[in-house]
Each structure stands twice: as structure tokens, then as C-alpha cells.
Amino acid sequence: MTSSRADRLRLGYQYATPYPEPGSPPRRPTPPEQERLNPDWAAAQRREESLLNRPLKAAFAVAIVIGLTAFALGAVGWLDVLLAGLAAICCALIVAVSGYAIWQGERALRSRLADERARVGKIRAAQESRLYAWQAEHAARVLQWQALRVAYEHQKRWYAVCAPDGVHRVDVVGGTLSGWSAMLTTAGANRLAAGGEITVLDLSEGSVALDLLGFARASGVDPLVWVLPDDLPRLDLGTGLGKEALADLLSLVASVTEEQGSARDLSLDNAILERVIDALGGQATVASVVAALRALAQVGDPRDDVAAGLITAGQADMLTAMFGRGATDRVVLDRAWVLESQLRKLAPVGTALVPLPRSAVRVVALGKRVGAVGSKVLGTYLTVALTHALGDTQPGSPWQHTLFVLGADKLRGDTLDRLSDVCERTATGLVLAYRGIPPHVRQRLGRGNAAVAFMRLGNAEDAKAASEQLGTEHRFVLSQLTETIGVSVTDTTSSAYTSTTGSVTSVAASWSASEGLSRSTGHGRSDGSLLLPSRASFSRSIQTSDSRSTSESESVSAGVSASTAWGMTTSKATGDSESLALALQRSREFLVEQHELQQLPASAMIITYAGPAGRQVVMADANPGIGGLSAATPLTLEEFRAMPAAATAPPAAGSGAAQVASGGGDAPASPAGWRSGNDRPPPNLGPPPPRLDWRKRRS
Prior knowledge:
nine-stranded mixed sheet, alpha/beta, about 40% helix
């Protein structure tokens, strides 16, 4: 079986059974009771014939007796010979006539019995012929049932859920740290298997990418990890930028604490920074720019920065004389002081660079000691610096380079827009994960050609906003394995990232997951237990009005409204209307109710996007352990159904069952830290098919 395409992002797996449960085997035909000659009927025929022949037999016997007597009397001379001969001749005629009639009756009786035996023989032959046909039909039905049974038991049950064609961005809304870890590991493992590159900006301060790092190391990839602010001196992101790019980067970072910086403030900051960088020779580091801002704002002693080699004495004098002490210049100096206070946290960037090998996995994460303001400053710096770095690259294959930004709700709207635009322009796959739905995030969900994935949203307002975004239709469904996984996976982390740019290169496990995944369903096998029955229910109301005229000019209309959620109510009213009308109304509910979003399992996600057939909503499980199950396949459900009939035909009974059960080697290895069961589940027998009455004669 072919693998899934490499130019799409795999978000999780959905459970489906294309081959339905075939039910119980067909019943063997019961041979009908064979037709035979009824002995009672034959005896009745003989009795009837005997009754009909009784007078003839009596006449036959009497004629013989009389004839013999007359012959004897004539012989002894007691009776005249002529008279005796005449009597004997008459008796002989009577005997001949009655005897012939008796023989004809016996012949007719034998003929009727023979005809009945022939009729019974024909019926028995027809019964045997029908029995042979039934047995042949039963054999064909048994072979078909066996093929369907083998296909049902050994079919793939987990199908990949990928971002659709043309989608360059996925917005992940909600979720816990363990849910994000599952999503990141599933998507990252798929991209690494396809030969792609991954960059992770972990702004969550929760060490979400630890499982992905463990999987990368197990796959032979040596990832690069920077933990900020400790690794700022060894971070090369944002270094080597030109004057305009560096001024743009630092001006955006300086305005991060403001709700939304105005164009005037950004232009003023940008102008000040460009002049400062010009004073430094046109090429500067963040540390030298911060030192120059201190000299411009007259904060501290510039001789300390000169001694540290950040600026020269001539540059310090030039910066001091750049602006005067007028009212306008005073505003500039005050703004320079504000810029220095914001950017001083970035001063160590790139001050102690070390040569690092190229890696397919790069993780830049915020440490636990970064603080609220530092988190915003560092997050904005990383995002904008990466935006400039991506802007200088040539467009490649879709999703070949995938960027994950975890905790993107900490970034401002304009920063998110710039990153999205440059990723779309360079064909870089972008996954933005938001813990909540603040106003600036809600305005950008699904904007452009993007897919949206909703995970657990504990906040009621966020869940309500997500439910409204999904829209109204039939209510959506959940299932058992995903629910069990959500219970067994914890939401806490026991360790943090270990920097790869320092002296220590070991990494500790991020969290411990329960082994409930392998035997959580009660069926003994986790690849066949996720039957998440959809609670897709909808409310329906029917209103019927019926009015008819009577002799007293009185009409009655009755209306009945029924709802599966609220029960049934009946009302009657009288009126003078003579119209007769029938109206059907159907109410719509949210596709996913608010409370369902609040109690989603940790690894479950509801993915929605616009497709050729309209809006698509798919329930997926991001647990990366599913990829190691024998019942999992890298094909999507649509790709499987679009395959030729020969490729998707059910295997013949007794042939190739072991090969089908083995999964054909399509599923990738299960990432470290996620477990899956290998026990075979018992068959899930459904209701038996209708019983065929084999005794009933066919017309």
C-alpha cells in the first residue's frame, strides 16, 4: 500500500471502518421433508375399489356355484341335460362379465397408484434440485461472508488526517501542554520521515517539544536546542541583519508591551534606531545598539560601555551631540530611554557564538525564569527575527520546512500577520498554537487559506467562540479510545529543556504517560477499540395545522411539536379559519456544543477547513502512538476510498490474512514515550441477518 504524500502535514488520525461488520454466518439450508406415497391414500383407494367390486364378486361367486351345481345335476341325470347346459352357459356368461369388470377395476387401481408414484417421484426430484441450488447459494454466501469477515477483522481502522491541499497554515486553538506535545510529535515525526525540516518556537514555557526531541534522537537526528534567556549569547537568530532590518526588528520589540503601537510611535522608534545604527557604522549588534541608546539617553556612564568594547569614545561623543536639549529633542531622548529599557534584555544576543552543525530539528524555547515582560520581548524578537530570516529564502516545496509557534497568543496581531505573510510567500508551513482566543486571535482564525484545529477549551467564553466558529449543523461525536487516552495522559511536566549549545547535551523525559493506551478499551486491543459513537443528535420540530368547517361553523386546528432534547408537547385551539395547511420546520444546533469543547480529551482535535464540497469537519486523535499500530495507515480515508477496486477489495478467506493483519509495514515506528497495544480484539458481532425459511417453497 502506498504511503501518504510527503507535501502535506499530518495532524492526527481518524477512526473509520470502511468494511462494515458482516454479522453472523449464513444459516445452512435445512432439507425439506421428502415427498412420498401416502399409504393411507393407497389403502383408501383399495377399500373404495373393494366396495365397488363387492356386487360383482358376489355375482361371480354365485354364478360359479350355480353353474357347477347345474352341471353336476345334469351329469347324474337329475336335471335335464338341455336345461343343465343352458344354465351352465348362462352362469359362464355371468362369470365372464363380472370377472372382466373386476379385472378392469384392479387395472384402474394399479394405474392410479402408478400415476401417484410418478407424481411423488417428480416432486422429490424437484425438491432435490431446489436443495442443491440452495446449497450452492449457501456455499457462495458463506464464501462472501468469510471474505467480508476477513476484511472487517484485518482492515485498517486508523487513517491519517492531513492538512488539505493548498493550505499553508494551521491554527491550533486550545489544548493542554500534553495535547500540544502529542500534536507536535505526530506532525514532527511525519515531517522528519518525509525528509523535511522543523523549527519550533516554544513560547509556552512548558517544554512541549521534549517528546519530539526524544523521537528525533531515536531516529538518528541530533537536534539543536536554545533555552532563553540563558542561551542568548549563543543564539545567532537576528545577527548579521542590515541597518533597516535591524531597526525594524528592534522597533517592533520595543513596542511589544503596548497594546497596539501606532504608526507614529513605530516610525519614531525606527528613525531613532536607524540614526543610532548609522552612528555605529551601519553594522551593529544588539548589545552595541543598547549601549548607544544609553549614551544617547545619558543613562549611566558611557565610559563603561567604551571599556567593554561595545562602542568607541568617538561614537559616544557623536551620539551625545546628535540631538540637542530642545523640547523636540527632549522627546527623542526620552524615547531613547524607553527603547533602552525594553531592549536591554536582548543585549546578550550573539555575543558568544559557537559553530554548530546543521540539523533538521531546531527548537528555541523560553525558560521558566523568563518573566512576563521578558516572555513578550523574547517571543516578539524570535518571531520578527525569524520573519526576516525566512524573507531571504527562496520558495521551496510545501511543508518542506515547517515552523511551529507554540503560545502564539502572546504575540501581537501585526507580528502574526507578518509571519503568516512571509511563510505563505516562501511556501513555509506554519502551525500557530494558541492557548486561548483573545480578540486579536479570534479575528485571524482561519484567515486566508488556512485550516483550524480546536482542542480542549476549558474557558467558557473561548469554547463559545469556537462553537460559533464551527457553525450549526448536526451535533458532533466523540469516542472511546481518544477519551481513554485523554484520561491516561497527564498535563504536567517533570523536567525542562536542556540546551544543546552549552556543555551539557543530555535531555530528561518531559513527563510520564500512563500505559493505559495499550489496554484501555476493554477489547484487549487498542487498534480496534476506538469506536467513538457520535452523539450526533439534532432537534426536529413538526407543526401541523388542520382546520375544517363543520355544520356549526366551528373548526379545530391541532399542532404537535417534538424535540429529542426537550420531550413532546401537544396543544389544541379552536378558531374560525377554513384553511388547511401543513408546515415542517427543522431547528439547527451547534455542530459542536460548548460543553463538548470544554471536555475534549487531551489528544483530540476537531479540524475544520473549506473544501470543494463545502466546509469539512473531521474528528482526529493526535496521539502519536497510533502510528505504531498495525491497524494504522499513512493514507487518508479519501485516498483509501479513491484507490482502485482491486487494491481495496477484501482479501479472500484463508488467504493473505496474516499479511493483511501485519499492516504491510506502512505504519511508522511509535515515538518514544507513547505506547500502543498489540493484542487482537474479539470480533464485534452485530445483529444476525434475516433468517431464510428454507422450507418455504419457491414459486
